[in-house]
Design brief:
alpha/beta; Aspartate Aminotransferase, domain 1; Aspartate Aminotransferase, domain 2; 2 domains; seven-stranded mixed beta sheet; two-stranded parallel ribbon; 13 strands
Length: 365
Amino acid sequence: MNQVDIKSKFEFFRKNNIVYLDNAATTQVPDVVVNAVDSILEYRGNPHRGAHLVAEKDEKLLDESRKNITSFINADASELVFTNNTTDSINLAVDLILPKIREGDEIIIPISEHHSNMLPFDKLIKVGAKIKTIGLNKDFIVDISNLKKKITKKTKIVSIGHISNVLGTLNPVEEIGNYLKKNFPEIIYLVDGAQAVAHIPVDVKKIKCDFYAFSGHKMYGPCGVGGLYFSKELFSLLKPLRAGGGTVKSVSLVDNKSYSDLIIDFEKNLSILEGGTPNTSNIVGLSKAVNFIRSVGFDEIEKHEKGLVSKLLGGLEKIKGIKIYGASKAEKGKSLVSFSVEDIPTAEVGEQLDKRKICRIYKKI
């Protein structure tokens, strides 16, 4: 499938003559996803809560979508929690881990992490945990030798971005996962997959992570939906963080007295984390986005991205005053280039590009 064929599947590109380079923040949405979301909203029931045909229709679609999305990352359907996005997923993981953290415990993260893989750990710092950072090697990827040196008996969590949102580099998450599970199986291993799932095949079993977080809006899906892979090995952490409809087997009163005497029999699976009516339309849309990525194929995606990155780097290197951050070559998984222009504020560079109908991510470095 060539570039023209792919772009023809997006109404955004059919209607707008824009160079859209902001996919690291949010992708556009193909017709198949828009149509799927619309179809649910036009004929909507409440999954798992109604015994009528409309609710049953949505329940079936929801279950099929869960299986399809989990198969995309080689997980079991029982190992996925639907969330709002990657940030929500990581916060959820941290909330589940919190009771296991004691004063002096350590969390290790690389210096190149997204805020969403930094700030949620503040909850653990407030109970006495410490953040330790690891550096990058000469290729601007996580330095495994540095990680090995930083691990101690106090290390409780290692959290790493699969692909850096700053540098676009692919981190050796599988090698790290194998090392941790072999030598420190008690350490919880979390991977931020926000920048990876739309670009490279993801296999959580090979990575050997305990948690894997991702967002729909970075993989051609709707906003407001994401996922958290939750390994069965950590199901002992389950607790009712979002208690309500859909999280319990039964609720009753002791001798029919007062609300404070409720007897609650919570579910023993991940539904305990998905309280309330599910975001069915966007979940089904995310499943269709997964099918869209499959239809293009990761080989074609990698080929196209390498071509674009090589072209961009080649052009930037010819411009005086350009500084490139990170590896200055096209690599597997690399779909992002960070650069600045000497003596010109980043905002001004953005304004000039915007006047030429070029959309790109804007960050102060």
